[in-house]
Amino acid sequence: MKCLEREKLFQLIHGMLEPQPAEEARAHLAACGECSRMAEEYQRLDAALDDWIAAEPSPWFDARLRARVASATARDSWFRLGRVRVLAAAVAAVVVILAVVVFHHQQVVENHHSVISQQQPNPAAAQPSEPTEALRQPVPPDEQLKMDENLSLLEDYDVVSNFDALSELPQAKDN
User: HEC states along 100-134?
Assistant: First the structure.
């Protein structure tokens, strides 16, 4: 035997079931002691609620409620204004950061173009016979300064990607 669900039992007690399901539920209540106890508890609860009289609100209830709503609305409007200020400050910070990044990128591109236009291949330059000789020689200070100025050039991907260092190394002769 399957016991009634609480919802169906509630519907039976309050007369919300159709005639056929109501008859089946009443038959089950007659056979099941636990379901009949639950039905009695529902009926006692309904009787207690019928006898209950709700307390009347005090005469000042409306005035106090209106005052609370007004103060909460005023407080919320200040918070909303604060949120708008924080949002405006955040947007301004993002705009400033983007402007700095774009300006810096523009300077890097201009430096790149000026370095490329200044660099001209010098075929008369002597290449050392061995790479180790070039590594042992100290770099003059003015060339070191030129290398330091061109560091931004190394950040440019197009220049670095087209640079083939191995093609410029001297090749060993096969005997």
Answer: HHHHHHHHHHHHHHHHHHHCCCCCCCCCCCCHHHH
